[in-house]
# Entry
Amino acid sequence: MVDEEGKSSTSILHDGSYFATGSWYSSIVVKGDTALMMQPNGTALDMKLKFGEFGEADPDVAETTSQKFYNIKLSFCFGKEFTELGVVSEDGLRITTKNDIGLSVLDWMSEEEAAALEAKGDPIEDPPGPYKIQPDILGKFLWITGGAGVGKSTSAQLRSKMHGYVYYEGDCFASCRNPYIPLDVQNPSLAQFLQKPLIGEGLEERREVCKRGNEMFGEMMAGGDYDKVKAEEYYEKMCEDIKRERKRIGGDWSIAGVTFGQDLRNFIRSKLGPDLVFVVLNMEMEDLKERIRIRHIREEGTVDILMVRFGSSRLK
# Structure
C-alpha cells in the first residue's frame, strides 16, 4: 500500500523464485525472510531479507515503481557484507533495485515458468559472437591482465573494434555466461552480467570447478591469499575452453582476465602454448581508485576492498 506522501508500507514476498533482469545474479529463491541468491554457475549465497522503510529510493527506482521510499533490504556476504535496497510491488510479485549496471528487476515466477527460463541460454559448445569463423587461421594470441579497474576488458574490446580481434571475457567463464561481449556496449566489464547463461553438456562439470574458484575469490575478498590448488584447477579449465574456442573460431585473440602473479601466468602459458603473450596493465593508485569508484558508485566499501585484494601491486 502507498500513503498520501508516497511512502510504502511493509510488503511481503511470495515464497518461490524471483528471476533477475539486469543483475549479476540470476535469481533469488525466497522462503519467508530468507533467500538463496543463485548465480548462473550454480553457486548459491545465503541472503537475508528485511522489510521496513530504508530511506528515499533512487530517482529511477521511484519513477519506475511510483514509490518514493525503499521498503526492502537484501543482505548477503561474499568476503564482506553487501546490501541492496529495493522496492517491493504491492502484490509482492516484483522487486526493483538499482545497481552499478542500472535498474534491476526481480519477477516472481511459477515453478513451470522458472524451469522453462532455466532451460534457455547459449550453447556451451559454440556460444554465438560477432566474429568471422576462420578456424584455419590462428593469429595473434594476447591475454590482457592486471588489477581491478585497470582497463583489461576495455582494452580487449578496443582491439576487437579497431583490429578485429576476438574478445573473450574471462570473468564470463567464472559465471558460466557467454564470453563474447557485444562490441557496442559502453562498459564491457559490467556488461558481462547481461550475457546469457550457458547451457548444454559439460555445464555441470564447469559449474563445479567455478564454484571452487568462487570460493577462492571470496577468500581473497575476505583478506586471504589465493589458493594455488584451486587457482590452477580453475585456470586449467578456463584454458581448455579458450583452446577449444580459439580452434573453432580462429583469427586474432584478446582475452581479458585477472591473473595472480608470474607463477600463475607461467602455468597458463604451459596450457595454452608458447605463442601466448601476456599484456600486464598498471595504473597510478589514485587514478585506479577513481576509476573503480566511478564503476561501483553505490558501493564505496567495494572500492577499498578491490584496491586491497585485487589491486595491481598484488598481481604482479
Observations:
- The radius of gyration is 20 Å.
- The chain has ten helices and 14 strands.
